[in-house]
Amino acid sequence: MNPISQLGYALLGLLHGQTLSGYDLRKIFTSTAMGSFSDSPGAIYPALARLENQALIEGTVADSASMRKGRVFHLTPTGAEALRSWLQEPVTTDDMVRGVGVLMLRFAFMDHVLGPAHTVCFLRQFAEAITAYLPRLELYFSINSAKMPRSARLALGCGIQEYAMRLKWAESSIQEYEREMREKP
Amino acid sequence: MNPISQLGYALLGLLHGQTLSGYDLRKIFTSTAMGSFSDSPGAIYPALARLENQALIEGTVADSASMRKGRVFHLTPTGAEALRSWLQEPVTTDDMVRGVGVLMLRFAFMDHVLGPAHTVCFLRQFAEAITAYLPRLELYFSINSAKMPRSARLALGCGIQEYAMRLKWAESSIQEYEREMREKP
DNA sequence: AATGTCATGTAACTAGTTACATGATTTA
DNA sequence: TAAATCATGTAACTAGTTACATGACATT
Question: Which of residues 71-100 of A touch B (CB under 8 A)?
Fold first, then answer.
């Protein structure tokens, strides 16, 4: 049971509910807002091969008339399960420190894969993790800002504002989900 | 002339104007707001060795009474030059897509290494890169949001808000610099 | 004397990067 | 038919990860 890389999970998430070729996946990384991932063939094709070796995805030759020859991939039950259990991992403060990118990636897939109830649960954990982390950052700022170079202080201030904004975003997103769940339960 | 990794530049930046040991640098990554970097010895010591091999830093044995034995590093003129030229690289929209983390890292060191005039110049480029990228993101949102899963749409919305916030931050930071430069020119 | 933390390093492994190779299918 | 682009892959290299090794010094 090998670990799955971030790119691996991104691929699993994109393959949930649809079959795509390696080229399709590359195009998604080049042309959409998921540009933080590499679109290089040297990253994607080996990643797909690893997922296939672990039986998390399966590739079938697409001989459809409209498509050029090439394999399209779909999730196996094991792969879908791996995706679900990744999405259900608890949100830790550590995840915040290392970078919110992974958390937002998980969130983006979440509603589609796990449904709104789990998604709200994730947002609550997300908000709580920020609520735990933000005071630590602010304390650090108040202690050290005086002796930091100006641009370092400004950069830290920007980071603090980012977290504050994400907290507000999470709270308003929770409300959006709750409103909708009251309307159609 | 080998390329320098992100961690390498972070180390060069931290060693600008001060001498630190490998352990000192590790502690900075564990305990301060630079937690996005790994504090593992297996990352830092090889990175220091690479920088030393490229003659960008120099390690000298610290036999000061208060310190345990170990080497402390300082920038060589070549290393200082490499740091400066990294900090002076133009800000591209591509940098935005791949992630603002590197840009903020550069900014944090900038005032101390290059002075306020260059820092304002960087902030202007930063603001302009966002001004170029944000409409693209918003266009993508307006076209695709209807057919995206709700949480994916919310995640994209959060990303857009983040960029908008950073733009405001950059503008107010520019003003802060300009105010100060009017006061003491 | 024993234990714990300081401090530096190494080894095996993994995943990503750049750059190239290959062939099929459109388009000019 | 020549050029461009679709589509998949591979090879060499690099840097980072986890885990372990080592010894000096401090604390009890």
Answer: 97-99
Least Cα separation, residue A32 to chain B (angstroms): 8
Distance between CA atoms of B182 and A131, rounded to whole angstroms? 39
Tokens of B57: 């830093």
Cα–Cα distance between B166 and A113 in angstroms, integer?
31
Mean pLDDT over all residues of chain A? 93
Strand C nucleotides in reach of protein CB atoms, 7 A cut-off: 6-12, 14-21, 24-26
Beta carbons within 8 Å of A156's beta carbon, 6+ residues apart = A137, A140, A141, A145, A148, B33, B108
Residues 41-60 of chain B within 7 A of strand D, judged by CB, are 41-43, 46-47, 50
Whose CA is closest to A167, among A134, A119, A139?
A134
Q: Can you give the pTM of this predicted structure?
A: 0.93
Residue with tokens 């503008």: B171
Q: Over range A101-117, report the average pLDDT.
A: 97
Judged against a pLDDT cut of 90, whether residue A25 lies above it is answered with: yes
List, for residues B8-57, the tens digit of each pLDDT value.
999 999 999 999 999 999 999 998 889 899 999 999 999 999 999 999 99
Cα separations (Å) of B74 from B11, B20, B49, B52?
Answer: 10, 7, 13, 10
Contact in structure between A57 and A79 (CB atoms under 8 Å): yes
From the CA of A139 to the C1' of D13: give the distance in Å.
43
Q: What is the pLDDT of residue B146?
A: 96
State how far residue A11 is from chain B, nearest Cα, in angstroms: 15
Question: How sure is the predictor about B66, in pLDDT bands with cuts at 50, 70 and 90?
Answer: low
> Distance between CA atoms of A138 and A141, rounded to whole angstroms?
5
* Edge-first strand listing for the sheet containing B57-61: B20-21, B71-75, B57-61
For residue A184, count other CB atoms closer than 10 A to its CB: 5
Q: Tell me whether residues A99 and B97 touch, CB distance under 8 A.
A: no
Cβ of B169 and A152 within 8 Å? no
Mean pLDDT of chain B: 93
